[in-house]
Amino acid sequence: MDIAIVVYDGFDELDAIGPYEVFRNAADAGADCSVTLRTIEATDRVTASHDLRIEPDGVLSDADPDLLVVPGGGWNDRSAAGAWAEAERGTIPEAAADLHGAGVTVAGVCTGGMLLARAGVLDGRPAVTHGGALDDLRETAAEVVDARVVDDGDVLTAGGVTSGLDLAVYLVEREFGEEVADRVRTEMEYEPRGTVVRG
Predict the structure, then answer these.
(1) What's residue 199's pLDDT?
(2) Residue whose C-alpha is closest to residue 114's, from 96, 102, 99
(3) Domain ranges of the chain
(4) Distance from first CA to last CA of the chain, Å, rounded?
């Protein structure tokens, strides 16, 4: 499984780096997966919401992912850089919609779910996002549910920030089995919490 995590200026660090580490640990534990950090446009560096600077692996259009993970950040305060700005710009929602239409599974972490909502891929589907953006999600065509992680098959969403870890560990178990997921949880000394709702 090839996993692409799309990053952009203002993304929340943990939304992306948490799942990245989970998937890398899953690969080390024997899962047949790889994970990269991708941007929409070519750039040497991306600055996250808490000023962490990263060097992406390349552009999303050069990847052929089976899973696209979209982090959030900067939605609730309508930051000039972040998920709100990217929703207004439209390129990440468009890319997510195109990939989903081509059969790629998409997952939104935190307000990354709002980017998926803007893409239209949450229409008529159960979904969740950061607590501070639930009213915004209710204004879309998504069916808002109370859960930490929502699995609707080829579309998944997670609540705020740390729930990205839960989403990634859940996906590791779903795709690669309990043994690999247990090895990841043990390595990271992490215990997922909250509710997973399956659509």
Answers:
(1) 84
(2) 96
(3) 2-198
(4) 22
- pLDDT tens figures, 95-153: 999 999 999 999 999 999 999 999 999 999 999 999 999 999 999 999 999 999 999 99
Are 114 and 83 a contacting pair, CB within 8 Å?
yes
Name every residue whose Cβ is closer than 8 Å to that of residue 186 and which is 6 or more positions away in sequence.
none
Sign of the alpha-carbon dihedral angle for 113, 117, 122, 128: positive
Return the closest-CA partner of residue 4 out of 28, 37, 26, 43.
37
H-helix or E-strand containing 108? Answer: strand 105-109
Q: Which two tokens stand for residue 5?
A: 């995590």
Contacts of 24 (CB under 8 A, 6+ apart): 35
- Report the C-alpha gap between 179 and 193 in whole angstroms: 18
Rg (CA), the chain: 15
Query: In this structure, what DSSP letter does residue 179 have?
Result: H
Closest of 155, 137, 148 to residue 99, by C-alpha? 155
Which residue type does 199 have?
G
Which residues touch 101 (CB under 8 Å, ≥6 apart)?
A: none
Q: Which CATH number fits domain 2-198: 3.40.50.880, 3.40.50.300, 2.40.50.140, 4.10.410.60?
A: 3.40.50.880
